[in-house]
């Protein structure tokens, strides 16, 4: 009981299905057995949605700060105005403001280690635009003054990162540079090792243009992507590609890799969701704090109908907890490293890397 994590949950958009998803999730007894959930939102809005959804035998314990949390119940910290207006099915300036107030409040407490991880319920896209950001990852990048943050989609079948996110298609080619690809590969490799305890990650890199055949077609593939991959290998990263996206996904090549790096968001996200959206969630990699979010949309068109699926919220909560445990394990391993043995007098990491890369290529060609 004492070792359970304090898991913060932001309430998302009060006009969408976020409260429905949260209520359904927290109504499960096993959630309080696994963690101490602390919702950042409004008790008044929660009570409203409980009535709208006709949910019985569910209550939230109102607290002022995480240390007051009841370990046997779901808790809520009131961090928005009690007079917040609920306008079902619409993203409004008021609902955007309420979602960002909750997010900022929760992040403040996450940074002070009052909670261990944070999971976001769906909020409207305009809420980030008002913060001069196109996405959660970009907003968090600015908050933590880093250009390294990246959305990492995670499911049981695949992990996927992106070189560019939420960019206009005409701008994508200008952002596909050796430097940007290498930075994302290094971030992805570090994340897989530290946050997912994968000791020698294999990363597939997609091409930019259609019908790419091992980097032999397309100016960007030959002049930018292939050199970036080669440079990544010199850094000890097992990156392979570039692959044509259509063949890569249709032939299930992703099953041979620990993660995929797509050149732009739409190139990878449609295939990712089609392959395994049920077990999926998003983790923002490259930050000092642990934040996850559901891939579920705010669902303005179905709000109040009690048909929202909380599986995405559950995935996001479990993902954040898993990353926390993995980071702790890595800290312990660094304190007590295993002795290193030279397995062959003429071997080094790059030699082993080349052999493994060739082995993967053989598997893909078979």
Automatic annotation (TrEMBL):
Gene3D superfamilies in UniProt: Isopropylmalate Dehydrogenase (3.40.718.10)
Domain of life (superkingdom): Bacteria
A Pfam family hit: PdxA
Keyword check for NAD: yes
Keywords: Metal-binding, NAD, Oxidoreductase
SUPFAM superfamilies hit by this protein: Isocitrate/Isopropylmalate dehydrogenase-like
UniProt-listed PANTHER family: 4-HYDROXYTHREONINE-4-PHOSPHATE DEHYDROGENASE, D-THREONATE 4-PHOSPHATE DEHYDROGENASE
The name this protein goes by in its record: 4-hydroxythreonine-4-phosphate dehydrogenase PdxA
């Amino acid at each position: 009981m004492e070792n359970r994590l304090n898991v913060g949950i932001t309430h998302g958009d009060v006009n969408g299905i976020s409260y429905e998803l949260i209520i359904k999730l927290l109504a499960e007894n096993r959630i309080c057995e696994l963690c101490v959930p602390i919702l950042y939102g409004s008790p008044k809005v929660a009570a409203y949605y409980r009535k709208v959804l006709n949910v019985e035998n569910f209550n939230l314990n109102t607290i002022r700060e995480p240390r007051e949390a009841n370990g046997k119940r779901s808790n809520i910290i009131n961090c928005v105005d009690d007079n917040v207006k609920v306008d079902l099915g619409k993203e409004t300036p008021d609902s955007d403001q309420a979602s960002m107030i909750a997010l900022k409040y929760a992040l403040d407490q996450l940074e002070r280690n009052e909670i261990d991880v944070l999971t976001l319920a769906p909020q409207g896209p305009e809420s980030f635009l008002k913060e001069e950001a196109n996405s959660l990852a970009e907003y968090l990048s600015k908050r933590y003054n880093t250009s390294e943050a990246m959305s990492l989609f995670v499911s049981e079948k695949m992990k996927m990162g992106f070189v560019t996110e939420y960019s206009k298609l005409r701008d994508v080619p200008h952002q596909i540079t050796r430097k940007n690809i290498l930075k994302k590969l290094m971030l992805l490799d570090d994340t897989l090792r530290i946050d997912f305890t994968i000791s020698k990650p294999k990363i597939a890199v997609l091409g930019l243009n259609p019908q790419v055949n091992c980097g032999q077609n397309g100016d960007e593939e030959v002049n930018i992507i292939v050199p970036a991959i080669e440079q990544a290998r010199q850094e000890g990263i097992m990156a392979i590609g570039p692959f044509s996206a259509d063949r890569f996904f249709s032939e299930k090549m992703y099953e041979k890799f620990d993660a995929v790096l797509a050149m732009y968001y739409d190139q990878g996200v449609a295939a990712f969701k089609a392959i395994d959206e049920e077990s999926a969630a998003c983790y923002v990699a490259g930050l000092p704090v642990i934040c996850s979010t559901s891939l579920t949309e705010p669902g303005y068109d179905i709000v109040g109908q009690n048909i929202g699926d909380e599986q995405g919220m559950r995935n996001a909560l479990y993902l954040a907890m898993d990353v926390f445990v993995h980071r702790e394990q890595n800290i312990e391993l660094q304190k007590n490293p295993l002795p290193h043995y030279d397995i062959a007098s003429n071997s080094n990491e790059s030699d082993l890397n080349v052999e493994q890369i060739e082995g993967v290529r053989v598997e893909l060609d078979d």
